[in-house]
Amino acid sequence: MLGSGDEAQDALQNALASTWIARAKLDPSKPIAAYLTTVTLNKCRDRMRRRKAARLLGLGAFDPDMPVASDAPGAESEIADRQALEEVSRAIERLPIRLREALVLVAIDGRSQREAAELLGVTEKTIETRVYRARQRLREKLDFV
């Protein structure tokens, strides 16, 4: 969602801290995974809003075009894979938030459409449509998908 492993770790840590603080308010009969996912998604959304505001104000900018260094210099296939992954990550990052959330939950996180629908408060058909549209947009932008 955030396009950066470090930012994702920070968002997750913030989500876990928020959950820990709110632990007395949680219903022990309900599974914690859905709650944690929702809190984490909200933390990611907050970070994206702050990033967008910083760009608008000309404060420190996040550069998604910064090349990713290879762990094994000289391994052409690994470099090509990393470049492809970076290109896909940038394309996913440019998707509208509703499409990106559905795609990340279903295609990347491996959740069912039902779970994603419950987490996002929409119908399964909405999730199905959003994932389909996200994949269509990615196909249009990327030659190899």
Which helices and strands, and how do they pair?
Elements (H helix, E strand, L loop, with lengths): L4 H17 L10 H26 L18 H18 L3 H12 L4 H8 L3 H18 L4
Helix pairs in contact: 1-2, 2-5, 4-5, 4-6, 5-6
Keywords: DNA-binding, Sigma factor, Transcription, Transcription regulation
GO molecular function: DNA binding; sigma factor activity
InterPro entries: RNA_pol_sigma-70-like (IPR039425), RNA_pol_sigma-70_dom (IPR014284), RNA_pol_sigma70_r2 (IPR007627), RNA_pol_sigma70_r4_t2 (IPR013249), RNA_pol_sigma_r2 (IPR013325), RNA_pol_sigma_r3/r4-like (IPR013324), WH-like_DNA-bd_sf (IPR036388)
Structural account:
With 145 residues, this protein is mostly helical. The chain folds into two domains: 1-62, no CATH class; 75-145, Winged helix-like DNA-binding domain superfamily/Winged helix DNA-binding domain (Arc Repressor Mutant, subunit A, Orthogonal Bundle). It has six helices and no strands. The protein has helices at residues 5-21, 32-57, 76-93, 97-108, 113-120, 124-141. Helix 5 (113-120) crosses helix 6 (124-141). It is globular. The model is unreliable at 68-73 (pLDDT under 50).
Helix content class: 55-70%
Strand content: under 5%
Structural class by SSE content: mainly alpha
Task: Give the averaged pLDDT, no decimals.
Answer: 79
Determine the CATH topology of the largest domain: Arc Repressor Mutant, subunit A
- In the CATH hierarchy, what is the architecture of the largest domain at level 2? Orthogonal Bundle
Low-pLDDT stretches are 68-73
